[in-house]
Design a protein that fits this description.
Layout (H helix, E strand, L loop, with lengths): L1 E12 L8 H11 L23 E6 L2 E7 L1 H7 L7 E4 L2 E28 L8 H8 L3 H22 L10 E13 L2 E15 L17 E3 L2 H4 L2
Length: 228
């Protein structure tokens, strides 16, 4: 069992809330902290991208924009004075009116049964290379490939957070819809649906590609969440 520190910062803007755009939110806030790689994954010495699980992730749900900080990212978000911050979301300039911060320490642990999670944004499992292979498979083999990729992505994410599982991780994806998603000008296939796993994951845990841009995050699948 490993405890993971997590903070959720919900921003509220003065005036009307703009249309959902987590990629604009990421760019706007990263511009406020150009020398801090926690906000944008660019190495401070200018040596390109940092290939690791983003400790600060940007999302947009039915209530508005959210930042999620994990471990050192959680501690960094607590240091920021959010009210009054001016952000450029694309061509729109907005001002943060207030920020609601919620902290939790979550124990990641194996459980003796499968837990169900709901995808709150499309999950992007493919690179250009493994998508080419995926297209050659039949429906049953594609389902197994989605399970395999989800398991691998979750294991990588947990390992990045220092979580070592002492039992076999089982993961299955119930894909109910597919959607074409744009990421850095590339058209990628994303999936909506549910994830089953025999481990308790932090609410809002994200896996797959482009998690810092608001893709691939999950919450426990309860009746209340299902109504949203």
């Amino acid at each position: 069992m490993k405890s993971v520190d997590q903070i959720t910062v919900r921003l509220r803007f003065a005036g009307e809330t703009p249309r959902p755009a987590p990629y604009h939110l990421r760019g706007a806030i990263a511009a406020q902290f150009p020398d801090d790689p926690l906000f944008h994954q660019h190495a401070a010495n200018g040596n390109g991208l940092m290939y690791r699980l983003p400790r600060i992730q940007y999302r947009w749900d039915h209530e508005g924009p959210i930042l999620v900080g994990l471990e050192e990212g959680a501690r960094r978000l607590l240091e920021v004075a959010w009210p009054g911050m001016e952000l450029c979301l694309g061509k729109l300039r907005v001002t943060v009116r207030d920020a609601e911060c919620a902290f939790q320490r979550f124990d990641v642990r194996m459980v003796p049964h499968l837990l169900r999670y709901r995808l709150m944004a499309p999950w992007l499992p493919f690179s250009q290379e493994n998508y080419a292979r995926y297209q050659t498979l039949g429906p049953a083999a594609q389902a197994l490939e989605r399970d395999r990729l989800a398991r691998g992505a979750i294991l990588i994410g947990l390992r990045e957070l220092g979580v070592k599982l002492n039992e076999h991780l089982f993961v299955a994806v119930e894909a109910v819809a597919a959607e074409r998603c744009s990421y850095k000008g590339i058209d990628l296939l994303g999936f909506w649906g549910r994830v089953l796993a025999n481990t308790a994951l932090p609410p809002g845990f994200a896996f797959g590609r482009a998690v810092s841009h608001g893709y691939g995050w999950i919450v426990p699948d309860t009746d209340e969440e299902s109504k949203r």
